[in-house]
Specification:
The protein has helices spanning 17-25, 41-44, 53-65, 70-77, 81-88, 96-101, 109-115, 120-133, 138-146, 155-158, 169-211, 214-223, 225-235, 241-248; strands spanning 2-4, 7-12. With 249 residues, it is mainly alpha-helical. Strand 1 (2-4) and strand 2 (7-12) form a beta hairpin. Pfam families: RepB.
Length: 249
């Protein structure tokens, strides 16, 4: 709990809302809790941390610049000192443009390790592809790394291997073509989605209105049964069984 700055006798619950409701149901009137005299939600919510890695890096870097030791940060966050130092060095070898593009994304540290093997230009291209596909997984980053030509890799990283067979030039070219085609399709869908959805809504309403007319529905049941069935699916209405029976009389 953290103190209310406007009322010294009131506290705000930061974490444990479900637990406190369970305690109320069990009849508890008192319970021990951790009080935070300062408004510091990051430290006391350390076990439910949804801060993007780059934002986390900047917070740790700012704290260390102000004289806070890595050991103190590790103790506050309940993690190893090595993990703090790794987060502190997260953007080493990452271009400023790529870091800015990925600052609010859930990229893991392993993704940045892979991006670090690429040149600055390729990092920006890869970041743009990940954002366009909304895919920030390690597997996708490895695929981008595999599709990267040798001249777009950092020289001292080219010789490092991950124990896997290096893709051939033909495989890399194919991956690049497929990825470019997929990116084009995604952008095309994004551009036309709103209009297509509007057209579909109008069409459904119009078809439902047509089928609500018994004369039209009866005529289609007699002359265009296939179209009637498809129209019923589009309009999401019940089959007009009574109309079909009426036409047979």
């Amino acid at each position: 709990m953290t103190a209310d700055t406007t009322n010294a006798e009131r506290w705000f619950l930061l974490d444990g809302h479900l637990r406190i409701e369970a305690l109320k149901d069990l009849g508890f009137t008192e319970v021990e809790c951790l009080l935070a005299p300062d408004d510091d939600t990051y430290t006391y919510n350390k076990r439910v941390n949804r801060i993007p890695p780059i934002q986390e890096h900047r917070m740790i870097a700012r704290a260390m610049e102000r004289g806070v030791s890595s050991a103190d940060i590790a103790t506050a966050l309940n993690i190893q000192v090595e993990a703090v130092l790794r987060r502190f060095r997260l953007l080493d070898g990452i271009s400023t443009e790529a870091a800015e593009m990925l600052k609010d994304t859930p990229c893991s540290m392993k993704v940045f390790d892979i991006l670090r093997q690429m040149t600055a230009v390729r990092q920006i291209e890869s970041a743009d592809l990940m954002i366009g596909q909304n895919n920030f997984t390690v597997m996708f980053a490895r695929a981008l790394r595999a599709a990267t030509s040798e001249n777009q890799l950092v020289p001292n990283r080219r010789g490092k291997k991950e124990g896997r067979t290096t893709p051939s030039g033909q495989q890399i070219a194919r991956m690049e073509r497929e990825l470019a085609a997929l990116q084009t399709q995604v952008k095309s869908v994004e551009e036309t989605y709103g209009i297509d959805n509007l057209h579909l809504t109008v069409a459904r309403s119009y078809i439902a209105k047509l089928l609500a007319n018994k004369r039209i529905a009866r005529w289609m049941a007699t002359h265009q049964q296939d179209y009637l069935g498809e129209f019923q699916k589009i309009a999401e209405i019940d089959p007009l069984g009574s109309i079909g029976a009426e036409t047979n009389t």
